[in-house]
Structures are given as C-alpha cells and as structure tokens.
Amino acid sequence: MEKGVPIRSITRSIAALKAINRHGSLSMMEIAKASQVPYPTACRIVQTLLYEGLIEQEPSRKRYRPTALVQTLATGFQHDDELVRIARPHIVALTKRVGWPVSVAIRVGRDMMLRDSTHANSSLTFEHYYPGFTLPILDSASGKVSMAFAPDEEREMILRFMRVSQDIDLNYLATAEVSLDVERIRAEGYAVQGRNHFNLTPGKTSSIAVPIFKNGHFEAAMTMVFFVAAMKLSHALEKYLDDLKATAAAISHELSNEPS
What we know:
The chain is α+β, with helices and mostly antiparallel strands and 260 residues long. The protein contains 9 helices and 9 strands. Helix 1 packs across helix 2 (28-35) and helix 1 packs across helix 3 (39-51).
C-alpha cells in the first residue's frame, strides 16, 4: 500500500471538495485552479459532487458551496480535545502579550490542520481562520516543524507518498525537500515561512512555528503569524521567539503531566 499510486480521479475529486470547503464559495474556474485540474475535469467533478449532495450552486450566481452533508464525512473521526483545552489559555495569553494571532496545528496526511487559533482575538489579521483549515506541510512553518520532529521513517514515508502523487510538481517537491533543513530546525527549535502563499491572503504574512511535545514526542506545532509589511522576519525572531518557545514549553509540560 505504501508503494501504491493513488487513484487519480479520486485524488482530484477530494482536492476539489477540499478547495470548495476551504474557501466557502468558488466559481468553476476557481475550482479548477485551486484543485489544479483542467476546466472540463472540474466540471465533471462538480457535477458528481452536486449529484452526491456534498455541494450546491448558489441561487443567484454560478458559484458552488459545501452543504451540511460535508460535516457527515467527519462523523467517525474522534480526536482528543486535551491539546486544545490545555493550549487555549496559553495561546490567548500570548496573543494578548504580542498582539499577533497564534494557532495550534497537527499533521493530517500531507497537510497541517488547525485545531485552534486566536485570529478572532486579534485585530492584527487579514482573515479569521477556524479549526479545520489546512496548509500544505512543506509550505508552512508549522509543517516544517512537524516534518523536522517526525521520526525519520515517518518523514520519509510522507515524502515517498508525495513523490508518487500525480498532483504535485516534482520540481517543486525537490526544491521543498532541499529547503527542509531538518537538523537546523531540530537544533534551533523553530521553523519559519517568509511569505505564506497557501493561506487566504497569499504573500501578505510570514510565520514562525515552534513544536509542542507530549512526553518527549512531537504533538503539534504552535505558530505566530504577522504582516510582512510590519517587520522583517529576523526582527520578529529576535522579538518574539523566546516567548513562543516558553509558551510551547508550558503547553508541553501540562500535556505531559495531564492525568490519564
């Protein structure tokens, strides 16, 4: 199974549904672009998703949005809310101190998924991000932290799946792998993304991520996001990194000492 090639039609359909769910409402052209499929393919996928009741067309315009049926896809998923319960007061307090929004994300497949964030608690944000929002693992500070602190075998398995995936450019993947400085991230305890290109405001924000551990094992990434125009990345590291690490350490300590 690890060496198998994904079924392309299913991969494309999932990509389209994720794009619609992520943005809330998209035109057919936007669906094709976001899911990286030809326009005729996007049309067939949308017709299928409409038939299955997972999306619907908006009444007054040719845009498509997810239906409540999408929520049923997560019915069987169970995740311990211990991480969110423990991290929440810490990231809220951190945002009050620094002003910038902070999020906690876990790895889900080859993406990082937000479990909680303080975007709603800060005026220093272009958009609000809610639990369930995803970012590509190699193009986000949280993803780089997750990859760096993953066991070597697990990291290689993720990269192997990405190499055989038909919806990822191999040149991009090779460049991303080279820039993933695992040893440096482990040694210095943080990762950065100079410009975030896969969020709701591409190119306008940068981010710094630090790891959260539970009993010595990587559990999640905590990320602070700030405006590119507000300060240089080097200045943000000098000003905020110690506080970020201290907050992540406090969360890690509580997680590791939580009664079973």
